[in-house]
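INFO batch 0412 | record 1 of 1 | parsing
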Amino acid sequence: MPSASTGASTTVVASAAAVPASADSRLAPGGPGYRRMSFALFLAGVATFALLYSTQALLPLISTDLGVTASQASWTVSAATGGLALFVLPMSALSERYGRRTLMTASLVVAVAVGLLVPFAPSIGALVALRAVQGAALAGLPASATAYLAEEVRPKALITAIGLFVAGNSVGGMSGRVITGWVAQEWGWRIAVATIGVIAVACAVAFRLLLPAPRHFTPGSPRPRALVRTVRGHLANPLLCRLYAIGALFMMVFGGVYTVIGYRLTDAPFSLPQGVIGSIFLVYLVGTVSASTAGRLVDRLGRRGSLYLAGGTTTAGLLLSLADSLPLVLLGLVLITAGFFAGHAVASSSVSHTAKEGRAQASALYQSAYYIGSSAGSTLGAVAFHSGGWGGTVVLGLLAVLGVVSITLFGSHAARTRAARNPVLAH
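INFO prediction complete | emitting tokens
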């Protein structure tokens, strides 16, 4: 993600295995409604990331227009992702009561409405406040979308379906930055942000018209005590906590790199114009591919092997980006993007094989950690850039990848220990 996983229960997976495919009424590739569902959630992913990161490629222009530093301007990104991180869990509880499709629709409507107000922000304070509200509204989408998939899609197709949703995130992130870059070069950052708002309106309308009505949703309890009990159970699960940390660390790398890259490419020796800088984000297409093929990657390498590969790819990209050669910087961004989206898709889908109940809450906790990582990466990446230049941002990224590898190694050790003690329960 970009967004996205769900805590699809192992009980559901086991029961599905016992039911003939012909008797399973959930959606499957090639079946009726699957394409509509996939395209609808793809558009939701596009709108979410386009809105969430609509100011990221414009930070140098915002700094100049409002007379603020890179660190201050970065809060227009951190506030949005922070708002999402804080509200994703409460929103997931509402989705248990009112339904996934209803909450996703409401979230998009509010986020789009705020997005149309953002271009009129008179100051950095007002801009940051609006972005925080927009992020909070978008919180209803990631957890609800992946919970919807866990309930409406057959287990064997779940990783692929989530990968397509994450691919929508990458397309939204890419198109939002490319479009804003070229529009801003001609008409300024305010018109660029307004353009993203209009595109999001179209995505929201198409999403609501295309998404099939849920057939397997059962309303849950919205009571605070039940929510706390479910969350406490998830946080007591060591594997889930490791997955949440991995998602946060991967996003810290990604958030830091893409928040600062515009400043680096604006400065010497590159000195690129805003439109060209926006076009750099076409490398998000690599994320679309890596996320949508995560299922095949896991089949070949396993989940931990896939995470090692994602971490290694991200590390190689960070090191390449240190060069003062534009082709090498672009190749570095390609590797960082591919590694991030692959790691995110694998980690998020792994939650669906771990949580045994409260799928929306399991997904919400992952999303919360993920976007906390984004906020931290955006802010710390800007601070590191201000203090040590691009090299400072790269060091921050390398430390985050080291965290991912360390957590995955610990998980491998824990799995071997569990297998030695009880081979039957090991998986």
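INFO post-check: DSSP finds 17 helices and no strands in the chain.
INFO record closed
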